[in-house]
């Protein structure tokens, strides 16, 4: 199968969508599929991912969040697509660049599959995107309803999209690399780094974008209530400087973006992952933590309950309730027996998810879209 993938973000950018796309492309290559990726230009970004060509589209940085490139489609995209002759087009998070995918799918006679990964209209409120939430939902519904099949990453998101008028919605299952993210990746060196030189102290880990929408500031309550604990934040983003000022004088360590062995060691070397976001469609960091044998403390919001089983692989707390957040963190950090049980449950839950199965389900949806023509 020849698949053209439109995506609003791709390597060298690093986020949950890019991780899912990379892992999916790896699996599709094993099957023997051929792909072309249409993605924004990031200056010196690579022209290939493995042997898959990446056609870069010029764009402009989104001022409140320069890591996001706004790259509208252009006629050269059409020429590249005609030369590639795709059997199917997959628009990932269509909003700016992906808004051209329905047009090209129609012109080329290729079925369109669209997948929804990010609550863009919700994030717009945090970054002053200048669109109303109603307008954002209308745009999302308009683009997705031009696809033969729509995909999302959780039942919670499927219900949300259906309630907002998006049709033909199916769940693209979770996946995680359980070999790469493993409890055996624990490192004393990284334990020292994450704890700011106090490896004996309880260590809470946050992994992900440092953005306003992630509700990271709520974690100050935990550090106030548990001054012996340490908070390590792995990642970067537009709110980093603001958060560094907010957490000044507190035992919070900003480690920046980490990849490869450093990232897997960070997961395996902490005591629990804390995930305060209430806007997630999935939360890949939670899956990577579980695979690393790391209990997850997450807000009972969004799709968190589909990833974390309360009392088995982690603890869920009530969003907007600082006392509930503090109580959950205190339980997991001070009760060694509970933490040991949650570690075992975390790893066990992750072992039932893998990218091969996830990608074979996706490919089944591709075949369904082709058959619907």
TrEMBL record:
Gene Ontology MF: a single term: glycosyltransferase activity
Domain Glycosyltransferase subfamily 4-like N-terminal: 15-180
InterPro entries: Glyco_trans_1 (IPR001296), Glyco_trans_4-like_N (IPR028098), Glycosyltransferase_grp1 (IPR050194)
Pfam families per the UniProt record, alphabetical: Glyco_transf_4, Glycos_transf_1
Membrane as UniProt keyword: no
Residue stretches making up the Glycosyl transferase family domain: 200-348
GO biological process, one term: carbohydrate derivative biosynthetic process
Keywords of this entry: Glycosyltransferase, Transferase
Stated name of the protein: Sulfolipid sulfoquinovosyldiacylglycerol biosynthesis protein
The organism of origin for this protein: uncultured Rubrobacteraceae bacterium
Origin organism lineage: Bacteria, Bacillati, Actinomycetota, Rubrobacteria, Rubrobacterales
